[in-house]
Amino acid sequence: MAKKSDVILACVKPNVILSALSEIAKELDSKLVVSVAAGITLEQMKQVVPKTTRLVRIMPNTPCLVQAGTAIFSRGATVTNEDIAMTTSLCSSIFNVFEEIPESLINAASGISGCGPAYMFLIAEALADGGVRMGVPRPLAHKLAVSTMFGAAAMMEKTGENPSKLKNDVCSPGGATIAAVHALEEGGVRAAIMNAVQAAAVRSEEISK
After folding, report:
1. 1 has a pLDDT exceeding 70
2. Which major enzyme category is it (predicted)?
3. Do residues 84 and 62 lie in contact, with contact meaning Cβ atoms separated by under 8 Å?
């Protein structure tokens, strides 16, 4: 199959990507290989494929399953602009954002977008649970939480405003929202999320060694 293809999508787990590429290495001469294996660097892949193989490393996220994904990518030294155009074309139907960044930033950025859906799901779950605690039926609490997260994301995207300003616009003096924000700050939610991004980035670095 690889021999007949111009572009190879390497969509396997990080612990098997290098052995998988090694097994078909002789068929990767002058091919474009696009990997989604977390933590596996371009240099590591370069060691197991022919010198003529062109490598692109992508870090997607799970919302691509509903055509709403975000992905970051880095290219190997021999990858051409035509290769990137081809890769972008292949990915355009499932990613809203497909951004090229230096590979040195890919683990940190993945801590935002790659792992970020899990943070959002956790926040949505907690938001709905809070409603249930206060007497809101769970199906309605879930619906409200999901719609609120979607609407807030749409506002940030469409207005281009800083999240801090949008938050402040909701917080009336002495109102319910500022009381809620104060409770979140007391609970350390901001630091917890920042620490989560750091933990994800550090773990990705560990995987790549």
Report:
1. no
2. oxidoreductase
3. no
